[in-house]
Amino acid sequence: MTAPASEPTEAAVLAALTAVREPDLDRHLVELDFVKNLEITGGRVAFSIQLASHSPSVRAALQAAAETAVKQVPGVDSVAVTMTANVSASRPVLGDKGMIPGARNVIAVSSGKGGVGKSTVAVNLACALHRAGAKVGILDADVYGPNVPLMLGATGQPKTAGKRIIPLEAHGLQLMSMALLVEEDRPVIWRGPMLHSAMRQFLTEVDWQGLDYLVVDLPPGTGDAQLSLSQQAHLTGAIIVTTPQDVSVLDVKKAIRMFQQVQVPILGVVENMAWFTPPGQAERYHLFGEGGGQRIESEFQVPLLGQVPIEIDVREGGDRGTPVVLSHPESGAAGALIDVADRVMRRVTKLNAE
Q1: Are residues 45 and 144 both part of a single domain?
Q2: What is the pLDDT of residues 257-267, one digit of tens each?
Q3: Which of these, 193, 270, 318, 340, is most buried using a 10 Å CB contact count?
């Protein structure tokens, strides 16, 4: 008769998991204290892995690698791995100056010029982060052209609790925008000090609740709003949206240099309207040129987070108040934006660790 296999030990399981490394932090799971709730019952091993982000690509890779590693331990018959996340927080070098109450990470979405689809990228990024499992808020700081409520189908005025403003909720996102405070057709005509004051109120007096990420949709350009945000808030990083054409790329360079001057890390560049593929065809038509994102990546050593094609579903989703990553997640544009969100989560994790 064959002797029954001995029950695997906790030490043996943890030793096996030292072979599994978190790709962005480049340390193994045990060293990072990511392995939680380890239970061994006969030949059955169960544990959870608590990551520093909800990145789908990291989650899938580490779950598969952990299962494979533990199955090699003598005496293991089955492995059950539960994936969870406790999103890391960005911290200023000196104390908590500039931290936004209720938000672990603040991500600015900017562009050097208007008309490149910056708000569309910001809204879909926020929805994709939430779709992955994160708690997300979006601040529409484009006070001169606040379109985020329309794109999310949000209406009504925010309520207050004492001196705190309660954000609206749309598609699981916490939302604040100037469009919720003024009449729809009323222009916002503000000079610098008024804008500075409004930005401070949006950042510090809104009752954001337990956000992993606060996405801030900035006005285009390199003006007062960008400077006010960088002066008043600790930003985890900025994302720059461009189209492939040269005139847009030129303005992106100015935006990158501005954020570098105020010491805000650049998370990467998103190339929007990268190409158009007619229905039923496979050929790509580069209506606005091509290669702009790669040129930025090469010149400034900032990652190209993704290229988003032109698709009618993107426009329709924005007009109807259901962003494309929610209405048509299987589409090419939605897939590109979901991948952008994944790369943003990974970039934030790495920056926070550094």
Answers
A1: no
A2: 888 888 889 99
A3: 270
| pLDDT for position 59 | 97
Return the structure tokens found at 219: 């006005």
Amino acid identity of 10? E
Largest distance between two CA atoms of the chain:
88
Give the Cβ contact number of residue 298 at 10 Å: 11
Residue 98 domain flag: no
Q: How far apart are CA 152 and CA 297, in angstroms?
A: 31
Q: How many CB atoms lie within 10 A of CB 191?
A: 8
Predicted confidence at residue 221, as pLDDT, reads: 65
CA 80 remoteness from chain centre: 29
Question: What backbone torsions phi and psi does residue 80 show, to the nearest 5 degrees?
Answer: -120, 115
Which of 149, 126, 125 is CA-nearest to residue 136? 126
pTM of the model: 0.90
Cα separation, 288 vs 251, in Å, equals 15
What's 289's DSSP letter? B
Please state the domain count of the chain. Answer: 2
Question: What residue numbers bound the domain in which 216 lies?
Answer: 106-353
Domain membership flag for residue 327: yes
